[in-house]
Input
Amino acid sequence: MSNIKYCCHFLEWRIEEVGKKGFSILVDKMPNGSYYFVQQGRSHDKDNLSGHHVTFQIAIHYCFGCGKKLSELIDDNKQEIAQLYELHKDLLMG
Ligand SMILES: [Zn+2]
Output
């Protein structure tokens, strides 16, 4: 588990849901190397992708739980966010 100082339990919980059916929040990276958060919705767990499944993803800039500006969270936890990205990158939508 990471040592990120999350703004609230909502965000922490959503990040723990990564790869599972339902909504989760992941770290993605822009071409310029800066990180940002995305919300992802999956119709199936990542390990249960036989047959038809749906995934969608949208960038988010403020925490849905508490409204914190997420770029500040990223600036305060640069190393941990980079580590999360390494964990998440194979689950991100191209
Ligand atoms: Zn929050």
About this structure: Residues 23 and 41 are 4 Å apart (CA to CA).
